[in-house]
Amino acid sequence: MITHVVMMKFKPEVTAEEIDALEALLDRLPDRIDEIESYDFGRDVARSDRSYDFALVSVFANLDTLKHYQTHPEHQVVLKKLGGMCAHIAAVDYENAPYHQQSDGDTDPWKSRNLFQRS
User: Fold this and answer.
1) Mean pLDDT of the region 12-33
2) What phi, psi does 45 have (nearest 5°)?
3) CA angle, corner 44, sides to 42 and 49, nearest 5?
4) How far apart are CA 90 and CA 95, in angstroms?
5) Which of 4, 51, 84, 102 is the right S-S partner for 112, CB 3.0 to 4.6 Å?
6) Residue 46 burial by Cβ neighbours in a 10 Å radius (0-12, 13-18, 19+)
7) How many CB atoms lie within 10 A of CB 2?
8) Which of the 8 DSSP states describes residue 99?
């Protein structure tokens, strides 16, 4: 499994309505891109000096499915929107350690280290 993490710092002039529209675009991706195993995103709530404004965390089966997601037309629409909104974007893609994955017999997601498991 590959976890894809993206952090975004918006330009000062970005409005709450533009962020709402971004969230609407992001919210529809899991229903349109089958390769997404789990998906979560949200606005920063800590508002510290070092905080980014927004983050996205998604999980893919392998690098090939991540690459398909990255080139998917629906994802390209999001990238275009982000290009106009963001002053800085940071991303990391890493291979999950085995203990991050929910065991087959564990039905309680709060006992799992993977709280983002897509059902």
Assistant:
1) 96
2) -110, -20
3) 155
4) 17
5) 102
6) exposed
7) 19
8) G
